[in-house]
Amino acid sequence: MISRPLMDKLLTFRKEREWEQFHNLRTLSTSIALEAAELAEFTQWARDDEIEEISKEHRAEIALEIADIAILLSYLAHDLGVELEQAVSSKLELNARRYPVSKAKGTAKKYDRLE
C-alpha cells in the first residue's frame, strides 16, 4: 500500500499533466494488465531453474515494472474510492475461509477443488 505522502505525490504528478481525463476503470485496469504482462516477459520462456538468476540479473528492471503496476493500482483504488488496506484485509479473511490450512497446506489447488 502506498503512504499518504507518496499518494499525494502521485496525484500531483497526474494532475500537473492533466492525465485524470484518461483514467477510468477500463483504461487503468487495461494498463495494469499490460504492465503485468511486461513483468511476465522476464520469465516467459525461461526454465524453472533459470528464474532465480533472472530475478537477480534483472532486479532493477523488474522493480520498475512492479512500480508501474503499483502506481496504476493506486490511481484506480483512489479514483474508485477503494481503501486498499481494507480491501486486502477483507480478501485475506475470505481466502482464510476458502483455503483452510488443513486443506490448502502444500497444494496449489483452487479452493473449489480442495477436499
Describe this structure in words.
With 115 residues, the protein is mainly alpha-helical. It is globular. Helix 2 runs antiparallel to helix 4.
Describe what is shown at a glance:
This protein is mostly helical.
Q: Indicate the percent of residues in helices.
A: 55-70%
Mean pLDDT: 97
Low-confidence stretches: none
Number of strands: 0
**Assembly state:** single chain
End-to-end Cα distance, whole Å, is 34 Å
Shape descriptor: globular
Largest sheet: none
Number of helices, where a helix is a run of at least 4 consecutive DSSP H or I residues: 6
Write down the secondary-structure element order.
Answer: HHHHHH
Structural class: mainly alpha
Strand content: under 5%
Rg computed from alpha carbons, rounded to a whole number of angstroms: 18 Å
Topology, please?
Layout: H1 4-16, H2 25-41, H3 51-57, H4 59-80, H5 84-98, H6 101-104
Helix pairs in contact: 2-4
For the structure shown, list the relevant keywords.
115 residues; single chain; globular; mainly alpha
